[in-house]
């Protein structure tokens, strides 16, 4: 089996058995094997189709199990060994299909009683996956071209309030934002196609305002319409956006699945803005689920151009270290330099956050989205946008915020309003 | 807001705040609200679109958090309150869309730092969801008609070994099984459309054998072909199966997502056999994720006819109590008596398991799938199937297995081979 013919999955696991035994059980469960010997399970079949343990690295031992229902061998101590295990699955068992890949590398493994903890940490895929998945259509370069933003992060906002605006109220907000020349606006993920404000009506109003503002400012704001839905309605929403001159759609990736995302990528001539809501369900408990490393690879392969990664000092549970890792993961090529996705920083973002964000991440290939930090700016959302641009100017030029703010009203107001009192 | 105009989500939650505060944060996060007051967030908007707490039931207090990253208010003791909270979301915010429903009732909630545990326990949906989702096309009654099995569970097997059989080996196995008159056969979930044995080739071989056996026995075995894949290939595989006379397809639900499942339901004139692999990732840690109650409702609404529920005394971590609950959930109507799905019992199933299964579950509306228990039967897989039928005869008639086995060779052999020594 050459490197090109295998899929390598890296797991963190915990077991009351030996790490070797537990790894063998994973191999049997997900390639060939059952609890009884089988007539057709020949040696030659096993040779070609059985997965294979590449390496086992022992870590610490825990005195209690991280997950319930784990089996302890009779007579053994209550000790749960932890380790990192790499397993190679034959590519020939699967083919270039993310849905089938998941049935193998994840499958029933999380339910095994021989394991008291399991997390899929990484996946190395052979290039055959490129036969089906083309990765981001626009990615970072394409998004910069469409927005005309160079030399700094792309700055945007979420429509707020999340839900409940009439189309006319939405129109007013977009008018003000687009007139200010803001780079990017997105729908909230809880706002899809609700009965009281159907998407086609909203798309029409938003695009009229964006085009009108572009005529005056020369800059066309990118708007990510939330087209999350079942497959056919999602593609209908996509058509609505494209036919109205929109250049971006947003989806809740976990609502439509990787299969839905790959399907959208095939049809979408516009940017795909990927929201990762529901991600906490797959990841917050450290001894179960999947790492963001794996998740973002599959999202990018399936075609997202932008991917949410939370923000530094966010309102969620996630540490800054984890956010930093996520940003770096999105910016690391998988197969090609163009298959990176723009990391989207959001949550508690505002003008004053730029220096720490830049100082920590040392990249401008970011999308920086502020909700309250733009909408609640005392000068209005347009001023809120300008304050973020000014905050990033200061960050990139290494000028203290207060110094830069001396001659910039919007940044000054932002520091007064949102800064630490 | 009338009962028909709301979606009621029930959560188990854990928080270092009061349950009331934590519930209000959920409401704000997923309906209207941000960390700063917003100009357009009027009282009338909140009235129509804000979610609302229906009830809060206090449970125990834990001295440590179930999930990492939870915030403890300054000066407060390290106490984590647990409770059951019901929240009503306005249907008007969402519309009849499972993908958008999930972005609201799950969304970012699992990542909130104000929560140290969150599990979605139940969902009550208004009938408007029936506008889009028709539920199972065949369900229990339809599956019985297609298989011709009445008065007992539908008995079947998985193709084993899981992976690696040539199409010709597969043909031999199916020939023997179909000749024995077995009710049902399914592909393994790790076997989709691999390069070495493409689905079209397998479908042709399998259906030839099934039709040939049916000509002799008068009974057409139902075969669930694993068509799990991205959207277009999945529908191509569906066409292959339908055009070859197949009457069932299988999907890994979590690989294609609820959106993929609903899309398949729209196109499939055949039974949909739902495999829940990857489910452990969403459910094994009791303080995160979602209950099977919620999961199976969404699966059924989106259109599964059969749904895997593990088996009693299974090889996985799951308790019998949990399996029993799952079976009952699948058999409980949501909107209509016909929207139940056939619970599929698998894992460590064999002839001798029937009496306990029937004694515990008290229903015959089951699919009972045995892998090793059929394939490793000393008389061959055909004898394995007959042993399960005989085991169920004994269970249903209340006859001890050994007594029934006295005049039934296959059951006798099964008891000798698989019974406790």
TrEMBL record, chains A, B:
InterPro entries: RuBisCO, RuBisCo_large_chain_AS, RuBisCO_lsu_C, RuBisCO_lsu_C_sf, RuBisCO_lsu_fd_N, RuBisCO_lsu_N_sf. Its cofactor is Mg(2+). Pfam families: RuBisCO_large (PF00016), RuBisCO_large_N (PF02788). Keywords: Magnesium, Metal-binding. Residues 139-418 form the Ribulose bisphosphate carboxylase large subunit C-terminal domain. The keyword Magnesium applies. Residues 4-129 form the Ribulose bisphosphate carboxylase large subunit ferrodoxin-like N-terminal domain. SUPFAM superfamilies: RuBisCo, C-terminal domain, RuBisCO, large subunit, small (N-terminal) domain. Belongs to the RuBisCO large chain family. This is Ribulose-bisphosphate carboxylase large subunit family protein. It comes from Paenibacillus hexagrammi.
């Amino acid at each position: 089996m050459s490197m090109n013919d295998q899929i390598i999955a890296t797991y963190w696991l915990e077991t009351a058995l030996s790490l070797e035994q537990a790894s063998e059980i994973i191999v049997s469960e997900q390639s060939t094997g059952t609890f009884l010997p089988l007539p057709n399970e020949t040696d030659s079949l096993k040779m070609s189709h059985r997965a294979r343990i590449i390496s086992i690295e022992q870590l610490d031992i825990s005195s209690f199990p991280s997950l319930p229902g784990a089996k302890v061998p009779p007579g053994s101590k209550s000790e749960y060994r932890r380790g990192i295990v790499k397993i190679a699955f034959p590519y020939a068992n699967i083919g270039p299909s993310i849905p089938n890949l998941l049935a193998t590398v994840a499958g029933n493994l999380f339910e095994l009683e021989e394991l008291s903890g399991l997390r899929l940490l990484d996946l190395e895929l052979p290039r055959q996956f490129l036969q089906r998945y083309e990765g981001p259509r626009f990615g970072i370069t394409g998004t910069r071209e469409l927005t005309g933003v160079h030399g700094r992060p792309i700055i945007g906002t979420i429509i707020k309030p999340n839900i409940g605006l009439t189309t006319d109220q939405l129109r007013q907000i977009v008018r003000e934002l687009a007139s200010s020349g803001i780079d990017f606006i997105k729908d909230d993920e809880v706002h899809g196609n609700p009965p009281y404000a159907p998407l086609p009506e909203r798309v029409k109003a938003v695009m009229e305002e964006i085009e009108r503002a572009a005529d005056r400012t020369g800059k066309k704001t990118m708007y990510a319409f939330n087209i999350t839905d079942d497959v056919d309605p999602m593609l209908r929403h996509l058509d609505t956006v494209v036919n109205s001159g929109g250049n971006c759609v947003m989806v809740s990736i976990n609502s439509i699945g990787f299969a839905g995302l790959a399907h959208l990528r095939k049809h979408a001539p516009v940017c795909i803005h990927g929201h990762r809501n529901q991600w906490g369900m797959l990841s917050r408990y450290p001894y179960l689920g999947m790492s963001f490393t794996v998740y973002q690879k599959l999202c990018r392969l399936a075609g997202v151009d932008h991917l949410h990664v939370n923000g530094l000092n966010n309102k969620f549970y996630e540490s800054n270290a984890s956010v930093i890792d996520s940003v770096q993961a999105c910016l690391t090529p998988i197969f090609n330099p163009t298959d990176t996705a723009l990391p989207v920083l959001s949550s508690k973002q505002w003008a004053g956050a730029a220096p720490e964000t830049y100082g920590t991440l040392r990249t401008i290939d970011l999308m920086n989205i502020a909700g309250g930090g733009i909408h609640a700016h005392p000068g209005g959302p347009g001023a809120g946008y300008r304050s973020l641009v000014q905050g990033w100017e200061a960050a990139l030029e290494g000028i203290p915020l207060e110094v830069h703010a001396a001659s910039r009203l919007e940044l000054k107001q932002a520091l007064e309003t949102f800064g630490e009192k």
